[in-house]
Design brief:
Number of helices: 3
Strand content: 25-35%
Strand order of the largest sheet: 1-4-2-3
Mean pLDDT: 93
Radius of gyration: 15 Å
Shape: globular
Number of domains: 1
Number of strands: 6
Helix content: 25-40%
Structural class: alpha+beta
């Protein structure tokens, strides 16, 4: 379900960071309760459109409590999380403040004329696991 509410915008330089924020907020509003909030909102900014969408997915599946390594990205995460939780969508879209557990942002360098922004949302039952193949077998983790 929540994967059906993924968004990509090729922003123009004049949009600036406020345009990025508006796109993320508009995407969450558009998805409403269809993503089974509270969600984890993943945002990719930069790179190519393909890389940007992949970054948004990685961001959505990042561990809760983790923070973007980039200082500006970390600041943006806090701002967007606060803004999303003021939308009033709430748990399961029934209203309230708990629309998102977190907004995670991933950044990449990009050409000045390319400004892709992608949004991907993970539902409240965020499932994440890891498996590593080694010469001696398989190990699992989270």
């Amino acid at each position: 379900g929540s994967e059906n509410n993924s968004f990509l915008k090729m922003a123009i330089p004049a949009d600036g960071i406020n345009g990025v924020k508006a796109f993320v907020i508009d995407s969450v509003v558009s998805a409403g309760g269809k993503t089974c909030p509270p969600t984890i909102v993943g945002v990719g900014i930069g790179g190519t459109s393909e890389q940007c969408v992949a970054m948004a997915k990685r961001a959505a599946t990042r561990a809760l409590g983790s923070v973007c390594a980039d200082e500006e990205g970390a600041k943006l995460e806090k701002e967007l999380t606060a803004a999303v939780n003021k939308l009033g969508i709430g748990p399961q879209g029934l209203g309230g403040d708990g629309t998102a557990f977190a907004v995670h942002v991933e950044l990449a360098h990009t050409h000045i004329t390319l400004n892709p922004v992608a949004v991907n949302m993970q539902c409240h039952s965020a499932r994440r696991a890891r498996a590593t193949f080694t010469p001696t077998g398989l190990t699992y983790g989270f």
